[in-house]
Fold this protein.
Amino acid sequence: MGARELLSVNGLVVNRGARKVLDGVDFSVREGEVVALVGENGCGKTTLLESMAGLHSLSKGVVTRFDGGNESVVRDFDGNRGDILGFGLTLQSDGICGEETVRERIITAIRISGHSPEDSVIDEMLSDWGLGHRASDNVSQLSGGLRRRVAVLSGLAPAVMRADPTVVLLDEPSEGLDKASRELLAGWIRSLSSLGHSIVIATHDYEMISVADSVVSFESNGSLSISPGESLGNASKIPSPTTMVDVSRFSEFINWAWRMEKRNPIDTIGRATPALVAMLLAFTFATDIVRSTENYDLIAALVLAPAFITAVAAPALLKRLSEERVGDWWRAMTGSWSRATFSVVGASFILPIPILYLSWFVIAGDIDSSTNDQVLKWLWLPALSIIDVSAAAAALHLMVSDLRRASAAAGSLLLLVLVWPFLELTSALATIMESGMSFELAIGEPLSDILISSFSAVLVWGVAVIIPDE
């Protein structure tokens, strides 16, 4: 009985702009097979490998994974994406945020694949790859060669920890590695192959090609030719697999994002600074003359503006995800709901409430006591709706960043749709100031306006999330 297929590509057509990069590609990887993808720059090696990870939209065809006897779609031309938990991926651009430590990166790659090894196993891996003495250093502090070792190890580690055969996708893994590291990489590849794992390598390096059991060459006419490889290289000792654990990819991403922000709070500072500037400008504008006219709509708008600015500002998470293609690595790991996950995590959950209360005290602090008491009692409701607006804004920012011309002005103008939720909240706060809080669900009542604002924001978020990414 032949080796089982672990991954297959059928009738794959991938366009990048007007250019057809892959045209009707059929390809499969079997259990224990090492495959090298070779060809000139721009021939489609990386596109094929990344399509196998579900990172590219398909004009035609389907990528299918076979895991433990179960068949699942990695991605198809209709935009469907399935769970691909447990595979390893090393991108050509590393896919590592510079604020991560070496140890954190390896642990994250392993945990998101469904394993939780002991510290001694992590130490063994890092020591084998000459990274033990830099385990606590940020990746940004490493040389290019050491950083590449971390990227390669994070691609191999999920398979090392897994007893059942899985797939490892490596894009130019030997690039930037020294001779000893390349030999170690070849040894680990042969060891994983002997355990039934399949490894696909996009490479120009003959040393990596010689390790392969089969070589897939990209011809000038767009077709593929497959020839036997040399299967060279001696297996190296690798750590023993661990048992599977129930790991939420969503919670792993939240933990990662929280660690990065806690270590370098650029999101908090980047949102709070323009909000405070807007608050001071609003305070200058909201003179005693404005307050004395009982222009509640204007006062409500000025009070809400700083928190609204906090909500619609581009999240720092977007910058982190764009660094060295970190976002693509996480998209491959989190699957079909990646943009939804990113937008929720990228929303400002903490700042809207304190900013809104501070804004009220600064701008409308000397308003009559009965109005002040009523507003302070219910101001948290508009603040919660602003959090919904923030999630919608984050989704729009992420959607625009996925466009081929992400800096196009038209994309950023999409944020204007969030003016409607802001106007609804302005109406709600003005009514609370004038007449007090009401729980009637009628047009023009505060609770209705707040619910309409939240519903509008959720609708925008949903549209931005379901639009297919690249």
Residues 380-402 form the longest helix (23 residues). The chain has two domains: 5-228, 249-466.
